[in-house]
Each structure stands twice: as C-alpha cells, then as structure tokens.
C-alpha cells in the first residue's frame, strides 16, 4: 500500500485543491455552485490575512516509480468562535478521491484537524454534512460527533445576493 | 409589560471595555429569559440592549462569508427596529468586506426564524439537507490521541 502523508497545504497546491473542490461539489450534486478561482484561493489562503487553512493528503510514490507525489484528498478549515465555549474550529470541506477511499485517509485528515484544534486551544470542532450522505454521517458519529440539527433543531440560514443588498440598503 | 421609552439608539462596533456587558447579554441569550429586572435604567446613561457577534468564514465554492454567530436584543427593547438596524449594519460590513453572503444558525423552534425567511433568507438545512455536527473537546482528545 502506498504511503500517505497529511501535511499543510502550500500556495503551489491551490491548483490541485481547486480540482478536488470541484470533484467534491460534483459528488454533492451541487457543482454549478462553484464560482471560485485559483487566484482567489491563493490570495485568501496564503495572503496577509488567511481566511482558511488547508491540509492535503499526499500519496508518495514508491522508489523507482516515474510519477511524483500526488494529492488525493484535502481538509479545509478555519477558526471560529462560540460565545458559549470560546475558540472553535470549523471543518468546511473534507474530501478523498473515490479510488483512495476505504484506507482511513479521511479519518487521518480529521484526526490531524483535531490535533490542530487542541493545539490552538479550541474546545469544539464543527462541520456540516448533507442528509443523504450516510457514509459521512456514520463516520463522524463513529468518531463521537453529535448531529445538532437532529438533536437540537439547529438549521443554517443564509442571506445572499439580492436579499443581503436589500438589508444593507434599507 | 411596560416598554421602556427609547428616544434614540445607535449601533456601533464593540470595544474591549464592552466585554462585561457582552458576556451579560450572551448569558441572557443562552437562558432565553426575560431579564428586565437586571437592566439598570437611568435617565441620562446609556444602556447596552443588544449584540451581534460575527466573524468571517470561508466557502471554497464562493469565497469569504460573514457568519453571524449570535444575534440578540433584550426582550423589553424588541419591536423598535434595533434588530433590523443591526442586520443592516452587518450586511453593509459583509458587502464592504467582499463577502458573498451572510450565514447564521437558527434553532427551528425559534419563531423569529420565520421572520428571517420573510426578509429573504434561505433555510439551507431544509432546502439542501445540511446537518450541523459537533465534536466536543473529549472527542477531539480521543481522535488526536490515537495514532
């Protein structure tokens, strides 16, 4: 089995990350919603004020193999804040290419994010899952997460585009 | 319930000195109780009657977002347009910071959630099926501890 390394993304990974972002959107059946560019990812993740952090899962090829290391998954997160508990981490995206699933790579990414969370004094890690994605829900529950939408009735609301401009203008 | 008379109000960014007041309002919001007794009204002084706590988040599909973590007006001061003014200021901040949307969590037994949809907000959990999950510190330590 090829060796997989979870490491912090570098600016040069943005092309690969965007490719995987599009794959994940496709998997979630929402690919027409991806509007971001590689340029924006670079500026927003690696500029003066990073708006996100990213880990990549990299397969290192065996000695003698012609191809170099290959990015096969990613975990994109940022720091948030709970007025009840303080510092939080929010795992916005986690994705592993289909042909590399079932090897524990997703779990390795989540565990690495958990380490970062503790290292930075965070008391919670939050994430969102689509209700039909039973495999992901089962994984998170097996790792000890609680479904707050089911347990406590939390829903995520959004004001976008026209609705937000109207609010601002009134 | 007698509504206090309000001649004017203003919405302003919080400063470090506001933290005790902010904590007070956070506890109120958590308890969802009518804490009118705790509000000290004076004829000349200023009273903090609401808060909006937000930060910037990131959606890899569209970029920066403004996330409204907490939004609260003391019950005795509702219906005066304070919440609407806070939402207006937040939207202006979002647009100025090049955010494409504002997200915020709502507990669906909260009647105010219906107000938000009337103002144009979308319930992503109902519309697209998103569920919010949480790992607490204990689970984080379990996960980080395993190698």
From TrEMBL, chain B:
Please provide an example of a Pfam family that matches this protein in its UniProt record: Acetyltransf_1
Q: Which InterPro entries match?
A: Acyl_CoA_acyltransferase, Diverse_Substrate_AcTransf, GNAT_dom
Q: Per its UniProt record, what Gene3D superfamilies does this chain match?
A: 3.40.630.30
Q: Does the keyword Transferase apply?
A: yes
The chain positions of domain N-acetyltransferase read: 1-146
What PROSITE patterns does this protein map onto?
A: GNAT
Q: Which UniProt keywords apply?
A: Acyltransferase, Transferase
The entry assigns this protein to a family as follows: Belongs to the acetyltransferase family.
Protein name, UniProt field: N-acetyltransferase domain-containing protein
Q: Which organism is it from?
A: Rangifer tarandus platyrhynchus
């Amino acid at each position: 089995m090829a060796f997989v390394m979870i490491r912090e993304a570098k600016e040069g990974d943005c092309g690969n990350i965007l490719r995987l972002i599009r794959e994940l959107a496709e998997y979630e059946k929402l690919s027409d919603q991806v509007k971001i560019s590689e340029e924006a990812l670079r500026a927003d993740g690696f500029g003066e004020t990073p708006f996100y952090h990213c880990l990549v899962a990299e397969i290192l090829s065996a000695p003698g193999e012609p191809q170099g290391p290959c990015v096969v998954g990613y975990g994109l997160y940022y720091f948030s804040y709970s007025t009840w508990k303080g510092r939080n981490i929010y795992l916005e995206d986690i994705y592993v290419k289909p042909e590399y699933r079932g090897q524990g790579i997703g779990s390795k990414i989540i565990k690495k994010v958990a380490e970062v969370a503790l290292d930075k004094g965070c008391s919670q890690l939050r994430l969102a899952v689509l209700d039909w994605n039973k495999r992901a829900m089962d994984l998170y529950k097996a790792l000890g997460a609680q479904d707050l939408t089911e347990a406590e009735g939390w829903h995520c609301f959004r004001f976008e585009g026209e609705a937000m401009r109207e609010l601002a203008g009134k | 319930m007698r509504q206090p008379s309000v001649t004017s109000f203003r919405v302003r960014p919080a400063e470090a000195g506001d933290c005790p007041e902010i904590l007070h309002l956070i506890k109120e919001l958590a308890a969802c109780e009518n804490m009118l007794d705790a509000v000290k009204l004076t004829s000349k002084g200023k009273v903090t009657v609401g808060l909006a706590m937000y930060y910037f988040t990131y959606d890899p599909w569209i970029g920066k977002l403004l996330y409204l973590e907490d939004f609260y007006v003391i019950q005795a001061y509702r219906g005066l347009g304070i919440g609407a003014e806070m939402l207006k200021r937040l939207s202006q901040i979002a647009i100025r910071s090049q955010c494409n949307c504002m997200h915020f969590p709502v507990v669906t037994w909260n009647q105010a959630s219906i107000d938000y949809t009337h103002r144009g907000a979308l319930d992503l959990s109902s519309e697209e099926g998103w569920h919010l999950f949480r790992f607490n510190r204990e689970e984080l330590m379990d996960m980080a501890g395993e190698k």
